[in-house]
Amino acid sequence: MPFKLFALSGSQELASEVAGRLGISLGALFTTRFSDGEVYARFDETIRGETVVLLAQINLPYHNLFELLVAADAARRSSAREVVAVLPYLPHSRQERRDGERTAVTSRLMAETIELSGVNRVLTLDLHSMSIEGFFKIPIDHLQMSAEFVKDIREQYGDEPLMVCSPDFGGIKRIRAYKQALNCDMAVIHKERLRPNEVDSMEIIGDPKGKHVVLIDDMTDTGGTLVAAARLLLDQGALSVRAYCSHGVLSGEAAERIQASDLQELVFTNSLPNRPQGPKFRVLSCAPLLARALENLSRNQSIKTLNNI
Asked: Who is most buried in 5, 53, 142, 251, counting CB within 10 A?
């Protein structure tokens, strides 16, 4: 299955890296916004009968998402055989269920909207919840950065005493996989929230004393949980605390908060284009993983094997 790879605006850097690893050139896609804010997309080469791959970093603001929808519709109306959306980060993935009366399941709304635009397949990275896969009626390939993170952790610590830790109970399954791959201890942090993005109290289940602790999560937004967890772990005897998160959302004053924290380092991917600079931030590119996934997809080979650690 040969394909043509196109980059949406704001995704040129990541798409160029993916294209370079695949040994192909990016396709000609023109996008712009009119003076009133309307989005426009046009393919400047024929895509009739082709598999069109749209790499889009659809983080906020919402015009990034709408640009994807417009480009997918343009591809469908231009007789593309198939439209594959590569979405490293899927917004609203934390709203996969109703948390109260008269609220929305926004993750499902996202899935249905993407499908209606003409997308035939989605390839994404480290979903916040596996249940989101069930919201899509089209195939969705869920990639994980765990193999790349495990390799980097081994390089950082060698034979040092190590513990992996989940900042909440939702990440226990993920942490168990890291524990087995790294042959180390594990812990989990129990936290109680007053409201979204605001933690009331935290406690560690596990003993971090005398160990280098690695916090593993799918994303960090305000950074509050990571900062508080690092302080708590160090207070209970951890030698150091480093964090790995696939999606560095880092909204508001998160970057400043982390820079001033006890975290040794925050490692995250370039799934989002806005990457803060500083001595405590390091990026592990997701481009090699995305490129391998597209190559496997084009050869009708397994995607799941890429997630093995």
From this structure: 53
Q: Which residues of 239-270 are buried (b: 16+ CB within 10 A; e: fewer)?
A: bbbbbbbbbbbbeeebbebbbebbbbebbbbb
How far is C-alpha 168 from the chain's CA centre?
A: 18
Report DSSP state, residue 307: G
Strand partners, 31: 41
Closest-CA residue to 28 (of 10, 44, 5): 44
Tokens of 39: 């989005």
Q: In this structure, what are the phi and psi dihedrals at residue 191, rounded to the nearest 5 degrees?
A: -130, 150
Tens of pLDDT, residue by residue over 130-160, are 889 999 999 999 999 999 999 999 999 999 9
Q: How far is CA 196 from CA 49, 118, 192, 286, in A?
A: 46, 33, 10, 28
Q: What are phi and psi of 147, to 5 degrees?
A: -65, -40
Are the C-beta atoms of 79 and 49 separated by less than 8 Å?
yes
Q: How many CB atoms lie within 10 A of CB 61?
A: 7
Torsion of CA 194, 199, 202, 206, to 10 degrees: 120
CB count in 10 Å sphere of residue 25: 11
CA distance 196 to 198: 6
Tell me the β-bridge partners of 188: 166, 205
At 211-236, the pLDDT tens digits run 999 999 999 999 999 999 999 999 99
pLDDT at 87: 98
- The DSSP 8-state label assigned to residue 95 in this structure reads -
Q: Which residues form the catalytic set?
A: 191
- 85 three-class SS: strand
Cα 22 from Cα 20, distance rounded (Å):
5
pLDDT for position 285: 97
Say how many C-beta atoms besides its own lie within 10 A of residue 36's C-beta. 5
Q: Rounded to a whole number, what is the largest CA-CA distance in the chain?
A: 62
